[in-house]
From TrEMBL:
Keyword annotations: Membrane, Transmembrane, Transmembrane helix
Listed Pfam families: SURF1
Transmembrane spans: 21-45, 229-247
GO cellular component, one term: membrane
Keyword Transmembrane attached: yes
PANTHER family found in the cross-reference section: SURFEIT LOCUS PROTEIN (PTHR23427), SURFEIT LOCUS PROTEIN 1 (PTHR23427:SF2)
Protein name: Cytochrome oxidase biogenesis protein Surf1, facilitates heme A insertion
Cell location: Membrane
Classification via InterPro entries: Surf1/Shy1, Surf1/Surf4
Main location: membrane
Length: 253
């Protein structure tokens, strides 16, 4: 008898309940336990994600409801500054606009517009101004109308947009503006501008001076989706366990 055949025939336990005999094999038990462990782990991971999102959503809601503060009166910690409502007074650097490429809004293709606002002679905050449609072609960039006088604006502080799948690197040139970016990196933008930028981005509120179509990243986190995924993993675990019991249970004649 081969080893594989011996393993298949080996039975861990033999349990009789009335006219039924539960007699699982070692191979089916090992496979079932392995899959149950994986699926249960994924279920609990989804529950952890849901709890994380609930906590983060509560933090966002609480911070957005706070009164607007000046940018120099904020906590030092980056995490404590995220999602805080902020107001600044300054002047757009209207000669230097950045277009973040490959963006869509309401089914339209275009750019996300970023422009620095100088709040002192050597310091500025990069402003997310919203969405603008693609020009007639990629060779003909849209016209970025920007206020030239001093402005007072309000928005929500957040990190720079995450760098997802990048199809190309940013072009290192300063001759033609606006400058199209494949991804946003505050250090690179600061080097291009030649002056210091604040370490976070101010996402402009609707109808503020210089704003375009409002496309603030969605801050409503859907924890229900993760709870749904967790339920699916637990349901599949239960189904697998039932199948394991049924397959290894025989009726005694």
């Amino acid at each position: 008898m081969s080893i594989i055949a011996a393993v298949r025939q080996y039975r861990l336990i033999s349990l009789r309940i009335t006219s039924y005999q539960f007699n699982p094999g070692i191979l089916s038990t090992v496979v079932t336990v392995a899959f149950l462990y994986i699926m249960m782990s994924l279920g609990f991971w989804q529950l952890d994600r849901a709890e994380f999102k609930d906590t983060l959503q509560q933090k966002i809601t609480e911070r957005k409801s706070l009164s607007t503060s000046g940018i120099d009166k904020l906590p030092q910690s980056t995490d404590e500054r995220r999602y805080l409502p902020v107001k600044i007074t300054g002047q757009y650097d209207f000669e230097h606009n950045f277009l973040l490429d490959n963006k869509t809004f309401n089914g339209r293709v275009g750019y996300h517009v970023f422009t620095p606002v100088k709040i002192t002679g050597t310091r500025a905050v990069l402003i997310s101004r919203g969405f603008i449609n693609l020009g007639k072609s990629r060779d003909q960039l849209p016209v970025i109308e920007t206020p030239e006088s001093e402005i007072n604006i309000q928005g929500i502080l957040d990190l720079q947009p995450s760098r997802a799948l990048v199809l190309a690197e940013n072009v290192n040139q300063t001759e033609h503006w606006p400058l199209v970016l494949q991804y946003l990196d505050l250090e690179e933008v600061s080097q291009t501008l030649g002056y210091e930028l604040y370490d976070m981005v101010l996402w402009l509120n609707e109808k503020e001076p210089g704003s375009f179509e409002y496309d603030l990243p969605v801050l409503n986190l859907n924890a229900a989706k993760n709870n749904g995924y967790a339920f699916q993993w637990f349901a599949m675990s239960l189904a697998l366990f039932i199948i394991y019991i049924v397959v290894n249970t025989k009726k005694i004649n």
